[in-house]
Amino acid sequence: FDGSEPWAIYFEGGGFAASADEALDRVCEVATATCVAYSSADAPATMTLGPFFDAAPLAAARKVFVPYCTGDLGLGDAARPASGGRTAYFDGARVYAEVLEDLGARGLWDAPKITLAGSSAGGIVLATLLRRVKDRVPDTDVFLDSSWFISGGRFATLSPDERGAEVLELWNGRERLDADCLARVTDDKASACVAWEQLLRSFEDVRVFVLQSTFDPYTLFYQYFDDAIHLETTADALYVEHLGAASRQSLERAFD
């Protein structure tokens, strides 16, 4: 690399931990029917990123895969007691700040263009870093893969009516939410600022591409289904249909 190449940075997703025990014990990935701890201990040394990064203009980009190991959407800065005398550390804010520092030392800030991409929770993580990156490299784009979570109502993933304030307190994460978004909502609705429906207004100077799947395992598994792999009943099908309609309405509100 000679410093003239664009960069493409992909942030892995993986839900979030809503308790100290959940952070330490396991996270379940429905699509592969496996459960692993929030940890970087078993992160692979290399990763195949798929066809998105093989297409122009990213084919020639310097590519980085960032594993998700903190369970706090990149917002955490807290140590919390867990069962059995254990302690859960929510260190996302520090971890991702150090990721940026390390990449900066490797030439990130000399790039002519950066694409930040993320899947599911990874798309929320990148939002916590976006302003810092955009301020250093103005030509920065965003690609969201199944990261468009609804900010309120029945289908909210993390919002005031879905224990949002409680989880933000667990992580000590409120102060790392986007300041512009926080200024637009009341204090009791701060957790709505993890959703791109709210965040998009804060980043009107950024090109954002959204690829949204109604069958994102996190959305289905954690909110409704005991088994998100097999959707067998009419009620299941209706739920997915209503979720899709709500997602479309959310996108229309944000891009209006």
Summarize the structure.
The protein has eight helices and nine strands. The chain has helices at 20-25, 92-105, 121-136, 164-171, 179-184, 196-199, 217-223, 234-255; strands spanning 7-11, 27-29, 34-36, 62-66, 78-81, 87-90, 114-119, 140-145, 207-211.
Task: Give structural notes.
The chain is of the alpha/beta class. 32% of the residues lie in helices and 16% in strands. The chain is built from eight helices and nine strands. The chain has helices spanning 20-25, 92-105, 121-136, 164-171, 179-184, 196-199, 217-223, 234-255; strands at 7-11, 27-29, 34-36, 62-66, 78-81, 87-90, 114-119, 140-145, 207-211. A five-stranded parallel β-sheet has the order 4-1-7-8-9, with helices on one face. A two-stranded antiparallel ribbon has the order 2-3. It has a two-stranded antiparallel ribbon with strand order 5-6. Helix 3 links the parallel strand 7 and strand 8. The longest helix has 22 residues, at 234-255.
Summarize the topology.
Layout: E1 7-11, H1 20-25, E2 27-29, E3 34-36, E4 62-66, E5 78-81, E6 87-90, H2 92-105, E7 114-119, H3 121-136, E8 140-145, H4 164-171, H5 179-184, H6 196-199, E9 207-211, H7 217-223, H8 234-255
Helix pairs in contact: 2-3
